């Protein structure tokens, strides 16, 4: 099991509290709103040092900022699929 940042919660709380993307970018010391927006959309990952700042600014308990993920990496899934196909071909 792995954990991911709960991007949906971050965006929902930010919008509900009326905080702009610009404000959040400033909180994290990012040079542009776009840099923050891409993190919130999941295009880029939040850095480990940014997560506590986001949680504090939005008032989200740190333990709620993460969600468990049962998804396996794409690479791992492809590898298992190829291995299974090879075993079938040998039979």
TrEMBL record:
Molecular function terms in GO for this entry? DNA binding
Matching entries from InterPro entries are given as:
Cro/C1-type_HTH (IPR001387), Lambda_DNA-bd_dom_sf (IPR010982)
Residues covered by the HTH cro/C1-type domain:
10-65
So which domain of life are we looking at? Bacteria
Tell me the segments the record calls region Disordered.
Answer: 72-91
Sorted alphabetically, which SMART domains does this protein's record hold? HTH_XRE
Segments of skewed composition (Basic and acidic residues) = 75-91
User: What is the protein name given in its UniProt record?
Assistant: Phage Cro-like repressor
Q: Which organism is it from?
A: Lacticaseibacillus paracasei subsp. paracasei Lpp225
